[in-house]
Amino acid sequence: EAQVTQNPRYLITVTGKKLTVTCSQNMNHEYMSWYRQDPGLGLRQIYYSMNVEVTDKGDVPEGYKVSRKEKRNFPLILESPSPNQTSLYFCASSPRTSGRVEELFFGEGSRLTVL
Amino acid sequence: KQEVTQIPAALSVPEGENLVLNCSFTDSAIYNLQWFRQDPGKGLTSLLLIQSSQREQTSGRLNASLDKSSGRSTLYIAASQPGDSATYLCAVGWRGYQKVTFGTGTKLQVIP
User: Fold this and answer.
1) Digit-coded pLDDT (tens) for B48-67
2) Contact, A35 vs A49, CB < 8 A?
3) Which of A108, B61, B64, B74 has the lowest CB atom count within 10 Å?
4) What single string gives the DSSP state of each residue in B100-111?
5) B-side interface with A, Cβ within 8 Å?
6) What is the pLDDT at residue A99?
7) Given A31, A105, A109, which is nearest B42 (Cβ)?
């Protein structure tokens, strides 16, 4: 089954404790992206990657890191989480046609709480 | 600035009614537009994708239209059912950019 898998789905952590949210897709998609969703603000892009070893900042990259060592995986790293990073996080992937992002496929989301 | 707006933020209709959800965007240079459904606490499920060269797409009871000149897309839901209750989001892919901008969504409640 074609899917985007995120782990963990739920996480409660404390300020400053490094954490990684994993994202994996099995559709051989070139494009992958991370979003956060907050009430009243909608979905905002954190980072995106157009291919292996190619990553770029989205609208709200501060406090986050990413890497794209393999095509299927795109982990999101919070080096020193703070309470304002409490949010619902989504990973998405998409094929690219002529360099453009096509249909987006989303994971189930990871709800992160930072105390 | 490239912005996407969905009005109203919430909508309540009786079961069986046909309804239209709106999505407006500020830049006519779009590449594609995608409609999603999101259930509470869940991920986004893709409903329809319209390319900039298309005027509409249909899937079952859903029909999405695109009018680039007026900066508007509509999602038409025929014969609404309680199971259609969810938040509907539109997302615009911009020509010339590797970027997708989301609207804040319309929360739909279909009352039995």
Assistant:
1) 999 999 999 999 999 999 99
2) no
3) B61
4) EEE---EEEEEE
5) 31-32, 34, 36, 41-46, 49, 89, 91, 93, 95, 98-100, 102-105
6) 66
7) A109
